[in-house]
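hey can u run this one w/ nicotinamide-adenine-dinucleotide bound, need the structure tokens asap thx
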Amino acid sequence: MSDIGLIGASTRVGAFVKILKEKFASTHRIAGIMDCDPGKMKGFCEVHDLQVPCFTDFDRFCQEVKPEIVLITTVDSTHADYVIQCLDRKISCIVEKPLCISHEQCRQIDAAVKRNPEVFAATSHNARYYPAFQEMKRLVSGGAIGKILRVEYTDMLDREHGTSYFRRWNSRRKYSNGLELHKSSHHFDRLNYLLDSYALEVTADGTLSRYGAKVPHKFEGVNCHSCAHKNECPEFFEYDKKMFQSEIYTPDMCIYSPDIDIEDNFTAAIRFANGVLGTYSLCAHTQYEGEIITVEGETGRLEMRKVYYRKAGEINSVHGDELIMDNSLKLFRFRGGVENIAIPKVSGSHGGADDQIITAFFSPERPADLPTIYDGMQAVLTGCAVVESIRQGRKVPVQLPGIG
Ligand SMILES: NC(=O)c1ccc[n+]([C@@H]2O[C@H](COP(=O)([O-])OP(=O)(O)OC[C@H]3O[C@@H](n4cnc5c(N)ncnc54)[C@H](O)[C@@H]3O)[C@@H](O)[C@H]2O)c1
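ok here u go:
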């Protein structure tokens, strides 16, 4: 039996717990949890029906739980410290994306990996495993559209989903370094994986246009549950009180807070090492949710669309499949018509991607193409370059000399 330690009693790691219980109960068990917030751990254990020891002290957690592998799903800015400490203790780690949030953290993780090359470590880039995207990868790798020339990636977070980031720690640069890392690291990893390459340089622009203190608004507070305007504010949000039994932090912070300091709308032009040119954009206040990826090759063009509308009043179906209005992968050829590519049907969170990646992580024979720590780093470095390019108003290189 392998003992798994959870670093972070996060909403995210719930998907791992569910799949581990359903599919790996005979080989793996959750042996303990570490988080800086006792109330969050209490709520987490109740929601997931876990009776395991909980720790706020990392050293004690390691000494008493002795995990073989840890799942690191804390706030983004804290990942690096835990990865490094675990590697140096020879504990295998699976780290949520983004792997970390800065160049300096990449350098420190790189040094820890080089000190401990025998220790398994991976980045949980589950978005790669979305079935339509896997089909796209299969076609590109198999030469179905010839040499790739250009990619376009449009990510749309509708007003409900987009707003959710601005109620939480994610909207503070010191914790996430922006959606360019927190959210887009998924997409930069997908592009690197799809093109079998990595981003070399980036030219970007971005704004904060719908959230934060500068946006015209009638009501403002610290968080919804303590707000004097809770009965009249159209942005009032009721958080999950069973999960967040915290005395420290609640995910209902005011979306007009002056502390919000990240972009909610940005675009980037990316040059990849293999010569492909790409455009990328993310907007966190769109009319409908989804993503559109197109890849232009010398002999064909692939278009993946996954877009869906939310029903009125619906707040919890961000990742459900029931409202999808277009979930397609199409192959176009010049004067050759359109081929609809069949997308395998899979179920579960994130369109089935979680089941795929978690099964790959915990299978007796791990597949060779799991997203590595260096894949995680490439995505982080691209996100950092986008942030820097927006700040400096010029083209910025992505790579860090000596890394990899
Ligand atoms: N791959 C995906 O699809 C996906 C989806 C959602 C979130 N995520 C990632 O998962 C992670 C968690 O996100 P979430 O939305 O579930 O967040 P969350 O707020 O639910 O959980 C974060 C946890 O980290 C804890 N924490 C903060 N600082 C800490 C520290 N120094 N030491 C120990 N614990 C600390 C908090 O108390 C909290 O319990 C993030 O890195 C996020 O990017 C990935």
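Residues 8-12, 35-37, 40, 73-76, 78, 96-97, 124, 126, 182, 350 surround nicotinamide-adenine-dinucleotide (CB under 6 Å). anyway lmk if its weird
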